[in-house]
């Protein structure tokens, strides 16, 4: 049975808000994981650019005594070389965590706003389960 237009609009706003919150939670989780995993690359590239004479040429003690232009260039190159495998590791960690927490299952279709009595759960133990589901939907194979 379809909902009335006003009720459909209200449910659309509720579902849209919930989907936006789930999206922001996924984005926050991805940002935290990528920041932690890519921290070595960020630090190495930062020090390489900071101590290179053609870029920032800092007057810090470690730039004068330890890092010259050649070693700064080596740090910059090393940082960009180790970035690719660390991005793959960060993405694998995010996907594993999102699968374990079932975050992608929480996105709800807008058809729940149109029809009354829709099912919004996708499997046993999912964080977004509601009553009245008949068969679980497998998202991950």
Automatic annotation (TrEMBL):
Superkingdom, taxonomy of origin: Eukaryota
Family: Belongs to the TMEM88 family.
A GO-annotated cellular component: plasma membrane
GO terms of molecular function: PDZ domain binding
Keyword Transferase set for record: no
Source species: Pardalotus punctatus
Transmembrane region(s): 21-49, 74-94
Gene name in the database record: Tmem88
Principal location listed in the UniProt entry: membrane
Membrane association type: Multi-pass membrane protein
Compartment annotation: Membrane
Keywords: Membrane, Transmembrane, Transmembrane helix
Official protein name in the record: TMM88 protein
């Amino acid at each position: 049975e379809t909902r009335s237009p006003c009720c459909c609009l209200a449910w659309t706003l509720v579902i849209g808000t919930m989907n936006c919150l789930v999206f922001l939670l996924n984005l926050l989780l991805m940002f935290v994981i990528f920041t932690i995993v890519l921290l070595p690359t960020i630090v190495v590239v930062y020090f390489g650019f900071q101590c290179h004479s053609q870029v920032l040429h800092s007057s810090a003690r470690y730039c004068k005594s330890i890092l010259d232009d050649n070693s700064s260039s080596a740090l910059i190159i090393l940082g960009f070389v180790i970035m690719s495998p660390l991005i793959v590791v960060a993405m694998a960690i995010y996907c594993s965590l999102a699968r374990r927490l079932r975050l992608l299952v929480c996105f709800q279709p807008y058809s729940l706003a149109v029809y009354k009595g829709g099912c919004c759960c996708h499997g046993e133990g999912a964080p977004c389960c509601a009553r009245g589901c008949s068969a679980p939907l497998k998202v991950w194979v």
